[in-house]
């Protein structure tokens, strides 16, 4: 590269330094909702700053299909994607294929602790936290006021209030009204729901931090018994095939008093075409009892750099830029994406743009992670056994205690083959 070209390029802000050459970095971004648009804006800003270019790689919206694609690419050592957007339960599954970011992750302790924990695998930082999710309770403010009921603090209170409101609304002619909707299909979403019920009732987290299977205990059985009791009473039997969108559809149509869902549903519930606009409140999910705890399952996404990237330094710079404080703040303001950097929950501009984000700091700080780190590549097997067992209990095909005994046996069999 000639000195004249280098001078002109630097003046135009196209190259970082003399002798550097622009590269193209491929980045996988979800296209759900506003994700693609907000991701592209951040990538374009980095490209303008560095002189490089970013190609957004289209990946399946289904998390299951996206993981399968990632596994196929990484197992082949393909460099098609430089920076991967990954779910919080994937570092243990895919981490061996990602670059160690420990040297660049000096500020990792500023992030939500649970997100920092999942970013580490085998003592290495294999991904950087990008945005956070946790299960939340959505409720109809107008109906709680109408029936003179407080926001429920325990599952028992939620059950009672859901019944009271459901009966009252049906007497008023709304025959398809329900008390509580959630995600009951046999899939990963049921794992997140059931983990919340069990953890909130001091029943553990399926597998503990040291790799011990803990699911067979009375508190876990009691939590599943409570949830099974909702089906067909305050929850439609169809919930056994609900994902996030089916439950949101019922709630947003004005046909449920309560809903469990992720933060994304807030903006949609407040949309101009929503039947419940300005009638919705959010709160931590209820506790299992007076001695229980609020337990929203940790969700969210991280960015990881492929070991097989031909431009690993530039890819790392992009990942660090997109997960940095300035970009997380922009994403929170423009897209209502929940930051993973704790200090941003006190940022005045963020709370002005998205008032509900400021109230979620404690929810995210105390979120319950799924046991993906300790179970590693076998997490999908563990989760599948868990949600299938829970689904059997919810559909009245198995009693909680006996089902958990069988699950304990099956999980210990997986463990014998090695978590990693």
Automatic annotation (TrEMBL):
<keyword id="KW-0574">Periplasm</keyword>
<dbReference type="InterPro" id="IPR006059">
    <property type="entry name" value="SBP"/>
</dbReference>
<dbReference type="Pfam" id="PF01547">
    <property type="entry name" value="SBP_bac_1"/>
</dbReference>
<dbReference type="InterPro" id="IPR050490">
    <property type="entry name" value="Bact_solute-bd_prot1"/>
</dbReference>
<comment type="similarity">
    <text>Belongs to the bacterial solute-binding protein 1 family.</text>
</comment>
<keyword id="KW-0813">Transport</keyword>
<feature type="signal peptide">
    <location>
        <begin position="1"/>
        <end position="22"/>
    </location>
</feature>
<protein>
    <submittedName>
        <fullName>ABC transporter substrate-binding protein</fullName>
    </submittedName>
</protein>
<keyword id="KW-0732">Signal</keyword>
């Amino acid at each position: 590269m000639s000195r004249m070209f280098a001078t002109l390029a630097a003046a135009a802000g196209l190259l970082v330094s003399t002798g550097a050459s622009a590269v193209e970095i491929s980045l996988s971004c979800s296209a759900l909702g506003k994700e693609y648009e907000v991701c592209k804006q951040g990538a374009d800003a980095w490209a303008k700053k560095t002189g490089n270019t970013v190609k957004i790689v289209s990946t399946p919206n289904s998390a299951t299909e996206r993981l399968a694609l990632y596994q196929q690419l990484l197992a082949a050592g393909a460099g098609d994607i430089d920076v991967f957007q990954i779910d919080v339960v994937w570092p243990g599954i895919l981490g061996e294929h990602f670059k160690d970011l420990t040297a660049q992750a000096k500020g990792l302790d500023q992030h939500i602790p649970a997100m920092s924990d999942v970013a580490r695998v085998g003592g290495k930082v294999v991904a950087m936290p990008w945005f956070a999710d946790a299960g939340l309770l959505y409720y109809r403010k107008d109906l709680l006021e109408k029936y003179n009921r407080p926001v429920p603090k325990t599952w028992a209170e939620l059950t009672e209030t859901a019944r009271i409101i459901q009966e009252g609304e049906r007497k008023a002619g709304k025959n398809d009204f329900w008390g509580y909707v959630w995600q009951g299909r046999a899939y990963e979403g049921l794992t997140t729901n059931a983990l919340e019920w069990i953890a909130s009732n001091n029943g553990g987290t399926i597998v503990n931090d040291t790799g011990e299977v803990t699911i067979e205990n009375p508190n876990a059985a009691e939590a599943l018994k409570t949830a099974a009791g909702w089906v067909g009473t305050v929850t439609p039997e169809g919930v056994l095939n609900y994902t996030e969108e089916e439950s949101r559809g019922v709630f947003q149509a004005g046909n449920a008093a309560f809903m469990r869902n992720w933060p994304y549903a807030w903006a949609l519930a407040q949309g101009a075409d929503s039947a419940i606009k300005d009638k919705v409140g959010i709160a931590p999910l209820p506790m299992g009892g007076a001695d229980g705890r609020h337990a929203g399952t940790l969700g969210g996404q991280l960015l990881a750099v492929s070991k097989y990237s031909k431009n690993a330094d530039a890819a790392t710079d992009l990942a660090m830029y997109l997960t940095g404080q300035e970009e997380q703040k922009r994403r929170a303001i423009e897209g209502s994406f929940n930051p993973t950097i704790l200090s941003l929950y006190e940022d005045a501009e963020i709370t002005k743009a998205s008032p509900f984000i400021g109230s979620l700091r404690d929810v995210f700080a105390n979120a319950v992670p799924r046991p993906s780190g300790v179970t590693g590549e076998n997490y999908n097997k563990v989760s599948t056994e868990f949600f299938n067992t829970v689904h059997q209990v919810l559909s009245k095909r198995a009693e909680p205690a006996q089902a958990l005994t069988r699950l304990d046996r099956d999980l210990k069999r997986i463990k014998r083959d090695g978590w990693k």
